[in-house]
Amino acid sequence: MKNKNYLITGSAGFIGFHLSKKLLSEGFNVLGVDNLNNYYDQKIKQDRNKILKKYKNYKFNKIDIKDYKKLDRIFKKNSIHGVVNLAAQAGVRYSLKNPRSYIENNINGFFNILELSKKNKIKKFIYASTSSIYGLQKKFPLKENFNTDNPIQLYAATKKSNELMATSYSHLYKMDTIGLRFFTVYGPWGRPDMALFKFTKNIIKGKPIEVFNQGKHERDFTYVDDIVDGIFKILINKKSKFGAKIFNIGNGKKIKLLKYIQLIEKNLNQKSKKKFLPLQKGDVIKTHSDTKLIKKQYNYQSKTEVSYGVKKFIEWYISYFK
To answer: Which residues are identified as catalytic?
Structure first.
């Protein structure tokens, strides 16, 4: 049924853009919702959106998810087969500077989407959670059944709240809610506030890069195409009658931050000047996902090696910024 309508919030955001593009190219209709805010360079969001607007099956709505009335109109006007909520205030460090934004977007905004999905009997509600939810775990790889009651920053606390809200709605209103704990997503059209983007930009300009925790971080970097492949599989899967489910969606491998920086240097053919700094407040030292659950349920498999993913990002960065 290719004439299905999917509502994607944050459609001009990094993951939302790639997911929308995948759905559109597969012939599905996408109702994009984004407020194109200025948390980072709006030009990147507008340029992503321009690409999506080339598809006839894309309908864009410049709406803030905090605006219940405007959202309500979108739900009423369209027959929606599934909702993917990717609109959120992202970023661990920014949550220390502007906590209110996280409550307004990630709690109140999320509630609006959830409530309207219930009201309009949406069969499938998928939403973004985060690997940050695991806090300061000592055991790896991280599994979905680990205790997540101790988030170490507000960003993770709001995402934990989303999981709890979705679980209660699922139970009360017989909704399918699927929360995806993303592990450090990267790739072309990525966010300027993320390490790969910042490192690339500074190395090219000959400026020092800030390396926190003296470079002793390890991360499960997940290429955006793998993430999109996972969401797509869940969205079009007909069999899922699950109630509330949570899945890790990651690469399933960890890489040392300093090795990651070496890959960037290699692709740029340029050495970085490193400014080693202590551990940032709210930062976790290591992430490493166990993805057995999503593999078993949806045959999800992360296919992209970090070396290839970094190369693709840098090719995009150089062509985009000339």
So the answer is: 155
